[in-house]
UniProtKB/TrEMBL annotation:
<dbReference type="InterPro" id="IPR027806">
    <property type="entry name" value="HARBI1_dom"/>
</dbReference>
<feature type="domain" description="Transposase Helix-turn-helix">
    <location>
        <begin position="86"/>
        <end position="134"/>
    </location>
</feature>
<protein>
    <recommendedName>
        <fullName>DDE Tnp4 domain-containing protein</fullName>
    </recommendedName>
</protein>
<dbReference type="Pfam" id="PF13359">
    <property type="entry name" value="DDE_Tnp_4"/>
</dbReference>
<dbReference type="Pfam" id="PF13613">
    <property type="entry name" value="HTH_Tnp_4"/>
</dbReference>
<dbReference type="GO" id="GO:0046872">
    <property type="term" value="F:metal ion binding"/>
</dbReference>
<keyword id="KW-0479">Metal-binding</keyword>
<dbReference type="InterPro" id="IPR027805">
    <property type="entry name" value="Transposase_HTH_dom"/>
</dbReference>
<feature type="domain" description="DDE Tnp4">
    <location>
        <begin position="167"/>
        <end position="281"/>
    </location>
</feature>
Length: 281
């Protein structure tokens, strides 16, 4: 006759295994890109972007749902080429997923159930379309607009004359196969192959200037001079930036002022005034 404890254990084991299987299935579903809404079928593909929830939209694209739909409408107007395999919304979604999440072409091809070649063609085309749209949005604001929208924090800190905040931003690249390109794009600061951009924003956060792309090895000084940021600045303008940013000779001649945090290079410590000013910046 079997031990009652053994019988009880035998009865509990399937339930335990079932629970573990359910937990594994839940984990799989949480991370599966092919859950409902991401499955195959032309009808579901057409509706995929439109049926994204708010949280999913922000996760996949970085945009709130209303902004994603507004951008989709702009893409429809700007695009001169039609890809029938996906709706405009799904094409935009594919592109933003590639940019935001860094998903591989093969991964995106499986998510949207199209060929890798179609993913590549759509992504290349959408980059061109988005560039055409965004270049109309990035404009240098009039000084009166900048002053009228000055955040209170700038006024309270004594930097109410700030025209823009400028900084060089870097984006990682896949390691180039050619040795020359690999050397030219290597950034010692990031310890990675990158491209760099000079970006200037108004104190209220509006992006007013984006330079062309430069190789990661290019210095901030070279980019500042070559990007022609100085064409937008004049007497009385103040630029806020991080340590290492320098004004061009032309900017200095025009009377542009630079506000940067103080640094201890060549001296043992910062003065009390420098500490206070740095904290305000």
């Amino acid at each position: 006759m079997r031990d009652p404890d053994q019988v009880t254990h035998a009865m509990e084991q399937p339930a335990e295994m079932k629970t573990r299987a359910t937990q594994w299935e839940d984990m799989y579903n949480d991370h599966c890109y092919n859950r409902p809404g991401l499955q195959t079928g032309s009808s579901k593909q057409q509706l995929f972007a439109a049926t994204l929830g708010e949280d999913d939209c922000v996760f996949y694209t970085g945009l709130a749902k209303i902004h994603f739909h507004n951008l989709t409408a702009a893409v429809k107007v700007e695009s001169e080429k039609a890809f029938t395999v996906l709706s405009y919304g799904d094409q935009l979604l594919l592109t933003l997923m590639r940019l935001r999440l860094g998903l591989l072409y093969g991964h995106l091809a499986r998510i949207f159930q199209i060929s890798v070649g179609s993913v590549f063609n759509i992504f290349e085309h959408m980059l061109s379309v988005l560039y055409s749209i965004m270049k109309k949005v990035v404009v240098w604001l009039p000084r009166s607009t900048i002053q009228n929208s000055m955040p209170q924090s700038f006024i309270d800190s004594g930097y109410e004359m700030t025209t823009c905040i400028a900084d060089c931003s870097e984006v990682n690249l896949e390691r180039p196969k050619q040795l020359m390109a690999r050397a030219q794009t290597y950034s010692s600061y990031k310890a990675h192959n990158t491209v760099k951009f000079l970006i200037a924003i108004a104190p209220n956060g509006y992006i007013m200037f984006v330079s062309q792309a430069y190789r990661g090895r290019a210095s901030d000084k070279h980019i500042t001079a070559d990007s022609k940021l100085e064409d937008h600045l004049g007497p009385g303008d103040e630029v806020m930036a991080d340590r290492g940013f320098t004004l061009t000779t032309s900017m200095i001649i025009q009377g542009v002022k630079l506000n940067v945090p103080a640094f201890t290079k060549g001296k043992p410590q910062l003065s009390e005034e420098e500490v206070t000013r740095t904290r305000r910046i």
